[in-house]
Amino acid sequence: MIERSAQGVRVPALGFGTSRMVGDECRNGVEHALALGYRHIDTAQGYGNEREVGEGLARSGVPRDEVWLTTKLKPEWFGAADAAVKTEASLQALGVDYVDLLLLHWPNENVPLEETFAALKPLVDHGRVRHLGVSNFTPTMTRAARSLAPVLVNQVEYHPYLHQRFLLDVMHDLDMLLTAYCPLAQGEVVSDPVIMEIADAHGKTPAQVALRWLLQQPRVTAIPKAASAKHREANLGALDFNLREDEMVALFDLESERRLVNPTFAPTWERT
Ligand SMILES: NC(=O)c1ccc[n+]([C@@H]2O[C@H](COP(=O)([O-])OP(=O)(O)OC[C@H]3O[C@@H](n4cnc5c(N)ncnc54)[C@H](OP(=O)(O)O)[C@@H]3O)[C@@H](O)[C@H]2O)c1
To answer: Is 184 in the pocket of ligand 1 (CB under 6 A)?
Structure first.
């Protein structure tokens, strides 16, 4: 498995995203992903599937310390009274002693970051949360968070249709990793003529090329979701080939402002 590292921490570059997967689909999906060789699983309190993710992990028989497990704290729980309690509830639901990464799922301007990090510090000190991170933070917000705590990751939407140049500069400056969510643009990449042509040249699929483009960038990890066993297996095929520089550029050139996840509570995105 390819890894990315920051702050001396190594993270498997290709993870398995679990949003919109619940019940047996999630339980069996996580177990199958781990059997296939995935070693990075992404969940969130907001997905309502932490219990099933934990059951899939337990059933897989893969030792806990061989899996990078990420969950996310809901913004409504960022206050001092809730942050630690709700994180403990996640650990209980997942059936684990610790998570590798706890992300603040979306910015919440109503709670100072200092308060949230202070509330989570005992969990970090006791090894219940190995690393802290953020998600959907703008470059400015990321710098603010990193000035307060050793946040390792910012998880954001990233695919060929939405560039993250400014955030990637921040990741470099602050020694952090960017985890790409919606790395397949929720399936849109599979019918892109430019990506299809590059895929044909390598005997690969467009999804594998889109993932490869992300994984060939420094500081980037990706977490495609695949409810289908066939897709789960296929996505691992992103790990065993290389795109040429001109092919990387061809994918960068697809850039537009195609943001797929933009709820009303999203921050004002910085595009300059
Ligand atoms: N932090 C956040 O706010 C946030 C927001 C959104 C997502 N996420 C995380 O990122 C993960 C991925 O994002 P996403 O699920 O929205 O989008 P995505 O991974 O870009 O796309 C998933 C879609 O692509 C399909 N697919 C997967 N592999 C494929 C392949 N090899 N060929 C063709 N189609 C394929 C899946 O189909 P099947 O499922 O039918 O296999 C599904 O419909 C989520 O599961 C979640 O863990 C985080």
So the answer is: yes
